[in-house]
Amino acid sequence: MPFYHKLGQIPHKRHTQFRKANGELYREELMGLEGFSSIQSILYHHFLPPRVTKAEDLGPLQPEYVDFGPIRHRAFRTAPTDPGTDPVSARVPLLGNNDVLLGVARATQSMDYFYRNAQSYETWWVHEGNGILKSQFGNLPFRTGDYIVIPFGTTWQMQIDSKEARFFTIENPSQIEPPKRYRNEYGQMLEHAPYSERDIRMPEELETHTERGEFEVRVKVRDRLTRHVLDHHPFDVVGWDGYLYPWIFNIEDFEPITGRVHQPPPAHQTFQGHNFVVCSFVPRLFDYHPLSIPAPYNHSNVNSDEVIYYAEGNFMSRKGIDRCDISLHPYGLPHGPQPGMTEASIGKKETQELAVMVDTFHPLSLTKQALKYEKPEYMDTWLEGNGE
Ligand SMILES: [Fe+2]
User: Fold this and answer.
1) Residue 315 CB: number of other CB atoms within 10 A?
2) CA separation (Å) from 200 to 146, 171, 255?
3) CB-based burial of residue 43 (10 Å sphere; 0-12 exposed, 13-18 middle, 19+ buried)?
4) What does R_g of the chain's alpha carbons equal in angstroms?
5) CA 354 – ligand 1 centroid, Å
6) Closest CA relative to residue 320, chosen from 281, 376, 282, 280
7) What is the Å distance from ligand 1's center to 307 Cα?
8) Which pTM value belongs to this model?
9) What average pLDDT score do residues 354-377 get?
10) What is the Å distance from ligand 1's center to 299 Cα?
């Protein structure tokens, strides 16, 4: 997150002697993005960070994409996803390109290993469940509605405290950040932004582990998974400071921007990444012009594939869509409300819908797994009635 935070003990001056009670030095690690040019943090470890006793290849992790076929709108039913074990192992990749990989995960267990994605930021949107994201930056309790944002290179482990948990996930080899237009030249959130720094939750409790033994860290990088065995607990940090750390924003803290007439999708924008945006559709009052039409107009979102994960409520402009479904409206053809939905929206005062949208600026491919989730009848939902 682009503002400063610190936890635990750190020396007053960077890169100076910082000693344990027994006189030994703590080990300083600078973790920075884009070399040393972007956001960074400095961490102080009990043990030397590169100590790895075993490195083992666990195989490729590249998504298997399939031919898209004729361009058409697609929808996917994710509710019956098999309940997997831990969140990372249970994740199913569904849609992706070079900028982003979208998936779902239904988990029933906490992780008994540690995980680091060194090639992508990860965002876990929590549809169901609660738990704690543990990392070398400290503990971050999470709950339903949270966007858990985890920077590249963070070593983490997720504890699930509910019977099961359900997530919509975003991986991207770029940063996730609040849109630039919400911030001033110093990075501070502006008054017109739909949320503020007070809505961002940061690690507040640092658990420092000094246990020795065998600790498994699975590292995702170069589109492969590597198993590292460390001879010390990876959460051995006694203190850190900087701008780089996992953080959480809850979708309920998104203050919707409404107007007399229909507000366009950018009014719902929550984050930006490279070549894509993340938007939140939250319960809100509808447009209040006396002749307003709350349902959206048809739109040809040229240069933007649109993915929506439908979480709760009745999505006003969609037919044939259920809870946990994902729609993909690719560019190449227009889309909009199905027959009757525009008329039905007139006079409605508010919506309880809750959905997360990802718009990508380059076409998305489907994975092999996505085909198993597909609702093939979706494209025909625009054909009912006389077509006027
Ligand atoms: Fe749309």
Assistant:
1) 22
2) 10, 20, 14
3) buried
4) 22
5) 15
6) 376
7) 8
8) 0.97
9) 97
10) 6
Q: How far is the CA of 335 from the centre of ligand 1 (A)?
A: 6
Measured CA distances, 150 to 46, 75, 110, 179, 218 (Å)? 23, 28, 17, 17, 15
Tell which phi-psi region holds residue 381, choosing left (phi > 0), alpha (psi between -120 and 50) or beta: alpha
Listed residue (156, 175, 133, 148) closest to 219, CA to CA: 156
> Over the stretch 235-273, which tens digit does the pLDDT of each residue have?
999 999 999 999 999 999 999 999 999 999 999 999 999
| Ligand 1 centroid, distance to 26 Cα (angstroms) | 52
Structure tokens at 308: 């929506």
pLDDT tens-digit series, residues 302-344:
899 999 999 999 775 677 899 999 999 999 999 999 999 999 9
Residues in the chain: 388
Cα(355) to ligand 1 centroid in Å equals 12
Distance 87 CA to ligand 1 centre (A): 29
**pLDDT band at residue 386, thresholds of 50, 70 and 90?**
low
